[in-house]
DNA sequence: TTACTAGGTAACTTTATGTAACCATAATAA
DNA sequence: TTATTATGGTTACATAAAGTTACCTAGTAA
């Protein structure tokens, strides 16, 4: 009987969220400044609008991103990181530093 | 013209690797000590053998994991993190700390 | 009139992942 | 003898996730 034979729920959950395609890049992209839908899409052109929209909803549901709809015409939507999201982005910098060294 | 209008290849690549399902949990699981195929599977039961095997090959191809086949019967396979993999695991601890605080 | 913009949505195709069965070999159990 | 178990896979098939294309709304520009 090992004392460390089960994964922590929180660890599992964070990898479940961040293990989805494009999630990391989207959060990374929002780190500098809030961006609109089309701006995120311009930064990550291989990510389709359909999935980008799905990911943004997931990030909003997780309290990582805030969606601000600007009632202009055409309607604009601005996405910004919450405090939770900003801290997530900061934690991802360690991974990016690893990438810079090893990839 | 913005100076920061393109994603760095290394950043893209690391999210491409780590953005695959189960990758993070597998690396996490190997952090404590090397493990055999069936041990990893026991830690992450929802991960199928088919995909676990696929992920291990990818990790080996990326130089993150070392596969050691022990010619015993039945044949055993032990997976351990390389230096590159160990440093990856360390960088993921920041993400796990975020999870512990926010999830 | 036609085209363009922004931020989507709907229908459909392709890729990734999940599931169940199977393999080889040797040791062990019935 | 005839199963059964263990290990680390592989194979074929089913389902879920992601990619593609066309379309929507309303206002503006050509």
From TrEMBL, chains A, B:
Query: Molecular function terms in GO for this entry?
Result: DNA binding
Q: Which InterPro entries match?
A: HTH_HxlR, WH-like_DNA-bd_sf, WH_DNA-bd_sf
Annotated HTH hxlR-type domain residues: 8-103
A Pfam family this protein belongs to? HxlR
- PROSITE patterns cross-referenced by the UniProt entry: HTH_HXLR (PS51118)
What keyword terms does UniProt attach to this protein?
DNA-binding, Transcription, Transcription regulation
Q: Which PANTHER family did the record assign? A: HTH-TYPE TRANSCRIPTIONAL REGULATOR YODB, TRANSCRIPTIONAL REGULATOR, MARR FAMILY
Q: What is this protein called?
A: Helix-turn-helix transcriptional regulator
Q: What is the lineage of its organism?
A: Bacteria, Bacillati, Bacillota, Bacilli, Bacillales
């Amino acid at each position: 009987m090992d004392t460390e034979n089960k994964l922590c729920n929180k660890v599992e959950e964070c990898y479940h969220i961040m293990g989805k395609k494009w999630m990391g890049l989207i959060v990374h992209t929002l780190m500098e400044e809030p961006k609109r839908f089309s701006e995120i899409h311009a930064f990550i052109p291989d990510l389709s609008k359909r999935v980008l929209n799905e990911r943004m909803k997931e990030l909003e549901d997780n309290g990582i991103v805030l969606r601000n709809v600007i009632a202009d015409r055409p309607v604009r939507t601005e996405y910004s990181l919450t405090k939770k999201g900003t801290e997530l982005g900061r934690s991802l910098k360690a991974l990016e530093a690893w990438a810079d060294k090893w990839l």
